[in-house]
């Protein structure tokens, strides 16, 4: 792996970066996928790729359709809504692929749901081979099953490809003892163990994903995606968020 100009080297050889679909939504433009935001996110991913880090990427679809909210607000059956959400992740994955390729980053999109015209089928050996050939791999289509979130997808894929860590990009700068958007006295954790997080009932990831990470000792770095350079700093081991391990 390559070092930065100031001699710092990445702490992780292989990562799974989890970003929410809402990150791509334009606050001002109202666009489902804002071009400027998409480009900025891809520039950040490229900065990590240029360090020689093998990058797997899981993106949500909440900017387009979220299965659970579809069930609650639109009367769509949960199973149908979840499949719609999986298709939404594919749309986001294709947008990221196109933008990254324009930045000269080789990319492959692997889908848990077969759609051969737009993505390769997810096969573990194929995914690891792409990573070994220094291609960014975007995992879309969730797990291929309803009732599972993209958090669970990230945890599953990270463990399957033997990633060194999951980097969960959010809109807050880490894990707090209570909602920092509501409580001014919320306390941020720089590091926390799985056991402490469970004891305090902190929602780092959904329960299924968190249990999978805990059982397989998969570290989770939670950080603020909106801060420029945050992904690169997380990969370099600079604690700009919360490390759960």
Radius of gyration: 17 Å
Relevant CATH superfamily: Acetylglutamate kinase-like
CATH architecture designation: 3-Layer(aba) Sandwich
N-to-C CA distance: 23 Å
| Biggest beta-sheet profile | 9 strands, mixed
Regions with pLDDT < 50 over 5+ consecutive residues? none
What count of domains describes the coordinates?
1
Strand order, biggest sheet?
A: 4-3-5-2-1-6-10-11-9
CATH class: Alpha Beta
The SSE order reads EHEHHEEHEHEEEEHHEHE
Approximate strand percentage: 15-25%
CATH topology: the name is: Carbamate kinase
Number of H- or I-type helical stretches: 8
Number of β-strand runs: 11
Q: Estimate the mean pLDDT confidence.
A: 87
Structural category: alpha/beta
Shape: globular
The percent of residues in helical segments reads: 25-40%
Structure description:
With 245 residues, the protein is an alpha/beta fold. It has one domain (14-244): Acetylglutamate kinase-like (Carbamate kinase), CATH 3.40.1160. 36% of the residues lie in helices and 18% in strands. The protein is built from eight helices and eleven strands. Strands 4-3-5-2-1-6-10-11-9 form a nine-stranded mixed β-sheet, with helices on both faces. Helix 2 (67-73) crosses helix 3. The two termini are 23 Å apart.
